[in-house]
C-alpha cells in the first residue's frame, strides 16, 4: 500500500485577504478534498513585516501584549511573542502605519518610542535574544524615539529634550547614550527585514520610503538633513566615526532608520527576515518530514525574488532536496524566473477568477480550488 504524501505548507499571508494561518487552513482543505489521507503540516511564515508575531505564535511562542506609545504619542496595544528566552517583536505593532488614522500621516513627528518600550518589555520578561521585525513603519526618526525609551538622552542647545520625530532632530545638540538599559549588553538583537537601504541619501530612509509615509519633497529633504545631523552629533562631528559607518551599512534605513539606531547602539545584526524567521519557526526540522513544500504569498513578482518569504522558503527547502510549488493571488513571474527561485510551479487565484476585486473577496474558496489542482498535479 502506498504511503500517503507528506506536505509542508509554509506560505506567507495574502495581504488584504488572508492571514498566513488562513492560507494554510484553506490550502489544507483543498488538498484533502482532492487527496484524502495526505499528511499535512502547517508552518505559517513571514519575512519580518506584518504577520511576524502571528507566525511565531503559530509555531509555539507565547503571545504577549503591552501598552506602548504609538507613532503619534497616543497609547496603543502591541502584540509580541516569547518562547524561552527568545522574543519576537514586530516594530509595526508599536510604531506602524496601521496605527495612523486614515490619510493622517505624520512624517516629521512620528516616533519609534513605542518600539523601545516593547524591547524593554521583552527584557523585563527575561528575553536574551530579540528578533526585531522591521517593516510597515510610520516613522522616519532614525530610531531616536526607541533610544530615548531605552534610556538615551537627546538634548537641544538649551539642554531640553528634543521633541519626538525625525524632523526635530535638526535641533539636536547633545546625544548621551550612557543611560541605555544595561541589560542590552547581554542581549542579542537581530534585525529581521527585507530591505538593505542605507540611512541617508537618494536610497535612504527618507528619500526611498518617506513618500509612502506622507512625506512630500520638502519633508523628504528636511528628514534626510535631520538624519544626517543626527549622525554627526552622535559621532561628535567625526565624518569617519562609528555612527557614520553604521549609517552606510545595509539595513540602516530599515523602518525609517530604526535599523541605524539598532546597529549603532544595540549591537544588532541585520539578517534577511525570512532567514531569521525560518530558524525561529523550526523550519529545518519540519521540512525533513516533507515530500512536498507549498509556499506562496499574495503576489509572486520580482520583489519575491529579493528576500521575500516564498523565495526564502524555496531556497531552504531545495537545500534539503525537497520539491517546492507555490500558491498566490497573482503571478507576475515567468516559468524560468520561478524555477530560478527554486519553485517548480505556481497556482495563481487569478487563473480561476481574473477580476482582482472578486479574486480578493473570494480568496478562501478560490484557494481551496487552486490547492485541489495542485494536489492532482503533484500528489
TrEMBL record:
Domain of life, source organism: Bacteria
Tagged with keyword Kinase: yes
Transmembrane regions: none
A GO molecular-function annotation: kinase activity
Pfam families: Gly_kinase
Keywords, comma-separated and alphabetical: Kinase, Transferase
Family: Belongs to the glycerate kinase type-1 family.
PANTHER family: GLYCERATE KINASE
Annotated protein name in UniProt: Glycerate kinase
Native species: Streptomyces sodiiphilus
Amino acid at each position: 500500500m502506498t504511503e500517503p504524501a507528506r506536505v509542508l505548507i509554509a506560505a506567507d499571508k495574502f495581504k488584504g485577504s488572508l492571514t498566513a494561518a488562513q492560507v494554510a487552513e484553506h490550502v489544507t482543505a483543498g488538498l484533502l478534498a482532492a487527496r484524502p489521507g495526505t499528511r499535512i503540516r502547517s508552518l505559517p511564515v513571514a519575512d519580518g513585516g506584518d504577520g511576524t508575531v502571528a507566525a511565531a505564535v503559530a509555531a509555539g511562542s507565547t503571545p504577549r501584549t503591552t501598552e506602548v506609545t504609538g507613532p503619534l504619542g497616543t497609547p496603543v496595544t502591541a502584540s509580541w511573542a516569547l518562547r524561552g528566552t527568545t522574543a519576537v517583536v514586530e516594530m509595526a505593532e508599536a510604531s506602524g502605519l496601521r496605527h495612523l488614522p486614515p490619510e493622517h500621516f505624520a512624517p516629521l513627528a512620528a516616533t519609534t518610542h513605542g518600539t523601545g518600550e516593547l524591547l524593554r518589555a521583552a527584557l523585563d520578561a527575561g528575553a536574551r535574544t530579540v528578533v526585531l521585525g522591521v517593516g510597515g513603519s510610520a516613522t522616519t526618526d532614525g530610531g531616536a524615539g526607541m533610544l530615548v525609551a531605552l534610556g538615551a538622552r537627546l538634548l537641544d542647545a538649551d539642554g531640553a529634550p528634543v521633541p519626538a520625530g525625525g524632523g526635530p532632530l535638526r535641533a539636536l545638540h547633545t546625544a548621551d547614550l550612557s543611560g541605555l538599559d544595561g541589560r542590552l549588553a547581554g542581549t542579542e538583537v537581530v534585525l529581521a527585514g527585507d530591505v538593505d537601504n542605507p540611512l541617508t541619501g537618494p536610497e535612504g530612509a527618507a528619500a526611498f520610503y518617506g513618500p509612502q509615509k506622507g512625506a512630500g519633497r520638502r519633508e523628504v529633504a528636511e528628514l534626510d538633513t535631520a538624519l544626517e545631523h543626527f549622525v554627526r552629533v552622535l559621532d561628535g562631528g567625526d565624518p569617519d566615526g562609528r555612527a557614520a559607518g553604521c549609517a552606510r551599512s545595509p539595513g540602516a534605513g530599515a523602518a525609517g532608520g530604526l535599523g541605524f539606531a539598532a546597529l549603532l547602539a544595540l549591537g544588532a545584526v541585520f539578517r534577511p527576515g525570512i532567514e531569521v524567521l525560518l530558524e525561529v519557526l523550526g523550519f529545518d526540522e519540519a521540512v525533513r518530514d516533507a515530500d512536498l513544500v507549498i509556499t506562496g504569498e499574495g503576489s509572486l513578482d520580482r520583489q519575491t525574488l529579493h528576500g521575500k518569504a516564498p523565495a526564502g522558503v524555496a531556497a531552504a527547502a531545495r537545500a534539503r532536496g525537497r520539491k517546492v510549488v507555490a500558491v498566490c493571488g497573482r503571478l507576475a513571474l515567468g516559468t524560468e524566473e520561478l524555477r530560478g527561485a527554486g519553485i517548480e510551479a505556481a497556482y495563481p487565484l487569478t487563473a480561476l477568477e481574473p477580476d482582482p476585486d472578486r479574486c480578493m473577496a473570494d480568496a478562501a474558496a478560490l484557494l481551496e480550488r487552486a490547492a485541489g489542482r495542485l494536489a492532482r498535479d503533484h500528489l
